[in-house]
Design a protein that fits this description.
By secondary structure, the protein is an alpha/beta fold. Helices cover 35% and strands 17% of the residues. Among the domains are: 98 residues, no CATH class; 174 residues, no CATH class; 168 residues, no CATH class.
Length: 647
């Protein structure tokens, strides 16, 4: 700013005039944080400025002094006092020009005692950044000034570091006290936890169920379910260590393994105590009969209760057969089954599972077939499957799933058919249904499931209606549950089958038909199951004991009102008087399932609905409510009709 002294008072006519003291006070109030260079010639300090700044000061002081002398005669406005005040102001101006600003700053650290930390806040301005980027070179006086500012900043750093260190020590102490208080609260909260009220027996059952769903694979890496429980807390650790059943089921792979895996196996065998063992044994490449893992397991063969052997041909070549006095279940997979002394030491074997197994011979006495009550045969040739069944007179349950790429051998035929007089449950998953049912008789069969492989293929045989009806007529079995899954048969064929199953209580049908084949579940089929309003002895509907119906059908023209008629007719007084049971549960689903619904197959595919259910439900709701029933309709799933008060 420049002021021309010749302009006179006209330039400031509208501004209030200041006294000398007010001017000095106003100027000095702006000199906070000024750095002064000590003078060797005077006891007082004078602001140190570059020569350019001194020239500005002299010009400004002269102009202001002339103006004051012309406008306020008689007052003390000496040039010396004005000059001194401006000198105190110039360092702040100079620092602003050079890119620094000093502002007093106070941080309140304690609101109780009002303890504050005072420091000057130094702000970098855009001017400084522009000079840095422009490679600005300060002159000699500026270099001295900048060095003094840097030294002053170092002193500020020391003050900040000391205060920060003091506050950090206080913060660390407070955090430690808070952590101690948190632990104090957590301990008492633990004492109030509802789980502490559960008896140990309940906790043991929970732990057992958890370990059953997740097999223990004994490897060096990973934590097995029992170890997870043991690492929870002291109570659960004691529970795990005192529950032998948690450590009695494990999976071992023979071959090159680490010492840690062997130690883990030893821990399982020790903590399982005398509890029967469920062992899954997989023979890898390079394994032999003197494998350290196998030798460790063979020391506990008297406790083997359930055994699964994968690729375990070497088990049959042991120098001395192991003693298996309590073995009840044996599963053999991917190997050649031949006569071996090991199979003679299984007096309690009842369940046998064979998966992709080939037989070298089946001589009598080399395998305890006669004592088996449950057999599952997967990926076997049909001839081998029938030979196994023929040697199992005590069989009660069987699951047969033969390989589709093997055709029936004409040299294997049983006449008379194999008599499975104790068999009560049979599941057949095979396209060679005709070859199977013409060779067996099951007079005690109560549950039958027939399924074709999914997805079906073009080489599948047609449904052998005559062979199957001959099987039912020959067996005269008291069949109570019948499931036909992906079986291509017409509604008339199904009605003919039902004439030979008067004891049937559960009927399940999953359609799998091509467009050129008739449907299985039709309106005519539903009408045949419906009890007539006017009863005549010659028109008795089939299945008088029917209680549950489960249909999975493709897009069709089924009238769901007929399903309600079926419910209503079989709950009438006339039907009850004639000995007909009430149909308690009816499930009708429209869609296409990609997987079979078996207990041993995951049911994770929801039917894709092809017909909107809302209009159907609207039509039948009132009729169902009139029966006192209810309609449950999970979205995109099925229509389900229930008769209340019967469960």
């Amino acid at each position: 700013m420049t002021i021309d002294a010749q302009q006179g008072p006209s330039a400031f006519d509208e501004r209030p005039l200041l006294s000398n003291q007010n001017l000095v006070n106003g100027i000095e109030s702006q000199t906070v944080g000024v750095h002064r260079r000590p003078s060797s010639n005077s006891a007082s300090s004078v602001p140190f400025l570059p020569s350019s700044s001194l020239n500005i000061v002299e010009s400004v002081v002269g102009a202001i002094t002339n103006w004051i002398s012309n406008n306020r005669q008689g007052q003390d406005y000496s040039q010396t006092s004005v000059y001194t005040s401006l000198l105190n102001l110039i360092p702040r101006t100079e620092m602003s020009v050079l890119g620094f600003d000093h502002e007093p700053s106070a941080t309140l650290l304690c609101p109780e005692c009002l303890y504050t930390f005072n420091a000057h806040r130094k702000i970098c301005s855009p001017v400084t950044l522009r000079r840095i980027r422009a490679n600005y070179l300060p002159n000699e006086s500026e270099v001295y000034l900048f060095k003094e500012w840097v030294e002053d900043t170092k002193r500020d750093f020391a003050r900040y570091d000391a205060e920060i260190g003091r506050l950090r020590s206080i913060l660390k102490k407070l955090e430690g006290e808070r952590a101690y208080l948190q632990r104090y609260a957590d301990e008492y909260r633990t004492l109030l936890s509802p789980i502490r009220r559960l008896p140990p027996e309940v906790l043991t059952n929970i732990a057992t169920l958890y370990c059953q769903d997740q097999p223990s694979v004994l490897k060096k890496t990973g934590v097995t379910p029992p170890l997870t429980i043991a690492q929870t807390c002291a109570v659960w650790r004691a529970l795990a260590f005192n529950t032998p059943s948690l450590w009695s089921s494990f999976h071992v792979e023979l071959g090159p393994m680490s010492l840690g895996s062997l130690q883990l196996l030893s821990t399982y065998l020790k903590l399982s105590g005398d509890h029967p063992l469920s062992v899954t044994l997989v023979c890898g490449r390079g394994s032999n009969w003197d494998d350290v893992f196998l030798q460790t397991l063979l020391e506990h063969t008297r406790r083997w209760k359930h055994l699964i052997l994968h690729h375990a041909d070497l088990i049959q070549n042991l120098p001395s057969p192991p003693d298996l006095p309590i073995l009840e279940s044996l599963e053999l997979s991917s190997q050649l089954l031949r006569a071996s002394p090991i199979f003679k030491s299984m007096p309690w074997l009842r369940t046998l599972i064979l998966d992709d197994v080939e037989f070298e011979d089946l001589e009598e006495g080399y395998f305890p077939f006669t004592q088996l009550t449950s057999v599952t045969l997967r990926r076997l040739q049909m001839g081998s499957a029938l030979r196994v069944l023929n040697r199992c007179p005590s069989l009660r349950e069987a699951v047969i799933s033969c390989r589709r790429n093997f055709s029936w051998s004409p040299t294997v035929e049983y006449n008379p058919p194999i008599d499975l007089r104790r068999l009560t449950s049979l599941t057949v998953i095979n396209e060679l249904i005709s070859d199977f049912f013409q060779n067996i008789t099951t007079p005690a069969l109560s549950s039958l499931t027939i399924a074709t492989p999914a997805p079906p293929h073009n080489n599948m045989d047609a449904w052998p209606q005559e062979v199957f009806v001959a099987f039912l007529r020959r067996s005269l079995c008291p069949l109570k549950r019948l499931s036909l899954l992906r079986v291509e048969l017409s509604d008339t064929d199904l009605l003919a089958i039902l004439d030979f199953t008067p004891c049937l209580t559960h009927l399940s049908v999953m359609e799998s038909r091509a467009d050129d084949l008739p449907a299985t579940i039709t309106n005519q089929f539903l009408r045949q199951l419906t009890f007539p309003k006017v009863f005549h002895p010659s028109r008795r509907p089939p299945l008088p004991r029917l209680e549950l119906v489960d249909f999975v059908v493709h897009q069709s023209e089924i009238d769901y009102g007929l399903v309600v008629d079926l419910l209503e007719s079989r709950s009438s007084e006339v039907a009850k008087r004639e000995g007909y049971s009430i149909v308690r549960d009816v499930s009708v689903r429209q869609g296409n399932l990609d997987k079979l619904e078996f207990p041993f197959i995951r049911q994770d595919v929801i039917p894709k609905v092809e017909v909107p259910l809302a209009p159907i439900i609207d039509r039948i709701t009132n009729r169902v409510f009139a029966l006192g029933g209810s309609v449950v309709t999970p979205m995109f799933s099925f229509v389900r009709l229930l008769v209340p008060g019967l469960f």
